[in-house]
Design goal:
258 residues; alpha/beta; Rossmann fold; 7-stranded parallel β-sheet; binds nicotinamide-adenine-dinucleotide
Length: 258
């Protein structure tokens, strides 16, 4: 993959998929802003891991839905590493919620992080990208947005479907400026997020059930997503925009697949 002297900002990169994306981009020679919300020590460890392999990175704390904090993050990354050419909107939260429940606070949290938390960082970097006539934006959606059948994920799915629409609309708006906007829809990836509101037994049962439903007969690894993100973020992917790349091992259990 080709990356010409690029700088990236990866949100929610202290662990999980975001960390794998940060490490992968750094391995490709990209300077990386490692955003975190609360895990400063883990984010710093990612920065040190990158530095120990000869890469350049800086840890930057900000809630992705907070405009002022994200503006400060962008300013810090650009001052220390250079203009941001690549934005990976990875930060996201998953909360289980059934139709019968009316916990508006939970719904608002998912909207704030998963939707507003995509729009705010894009707004913060897009002016510079437009001026330079180059940009790569990669948003993390989910196969939940395609209509999977996993119980309790309906409202999370709705927030990730919004990410798909925003991806296509922003791609339309930003294409003339040399900026691509794509999304990745990961399947089930073994990270901390899958432990939310589940017991160990439930997670293990889920792992084997999901593996059976995937054509590749396994659950995903953060590195599977990082590979797709790196490609979409690379110079090579300049004619790919407004796309949602599903990385799920070939799941066969979508509602609309019967
Ligand atoms: P994770 O919980 O391990 O990591 C998410 C990261 O985002 C965490 O470091 C968290 O602190 C950070 N974050 C959350 N809210 C934030 C905020 N407001 N500001 C800044 N950072 C914030 O989850 P993951 O599995 O690595 O998921 C990464 C992305 O991939 C998410 O958008 C998630 O919805 C999506 N995804 C994950 C799976 C999966 O199976 N793991 C499947 C589909 C989509």
């Amino acid at each position: 993959m080709t990356f010409q002297n690029r700088t990236a900002l990866v949100t929610g990169a202290s662990r999980g998929i975001g960390k794998a994306i940060a490490l992968r981009l750094a391995g490709e020679g990209v300077a990386v802003g490692v955003n975190y919300r609360e895990r400063a020590a883990e984010a710093q460890a990612v920065v040190e891991e990158i530095a120990s392999r000869g890469g350049r990175a800086v840890a930057v704390g900000a809630d992705v839905s907070d405009e002022a904090a994200v503006a400060a993050t962008v300013a810090k990354v650009e001052a220390e590493l250079g203009p941001i050419d690549i934005l990976v909107n990875n930060a996201g939260i998953f909360r289980r919620m059934e139709l019968g429940e009316t916990d508006w606070e939970v719904m608002d949290q998912m909207q704030r992080t998963n939707v507003r938390g995509v729009v705010v960082p894009i707004r913060a970097v897009v002016e510079g990208m437009r001026r330079r006539g180059y940009g790569r934006i990669v948003n993390l959606s989910s196969i939940a947005a395609h209509g999977t059948s996993m119980a309790g994920t309906t409202f999370y799915a709705a927030s990730k479907a919004e990410v798909v629409v925003l991806t296509r609309r922003f791609a339309l708006e930003l294409g003339p400026f040399g900026i691509t906007v794509n999304a990745i829809a990961p399947g089930f990836i073994a990270t901390d997020i899958v432990w939310v509101d589940r017991t160990r037994e439930e997670v293990e049962r889920l792992f084997s059930t999901i593996a059976e439903k995937a054509m590749m007969r396994r659950v995903g690894k953060p590195e599977d997503i990082a590979a797709a993100a790196a490609f979409l973020a690379s110079d090579d992917a300049g004619f790919i925009t407004a796309q949602v790349i599903t990385v799920d091992g070939g799941r066969t259990d979508y509602i609309n697949h019967g």
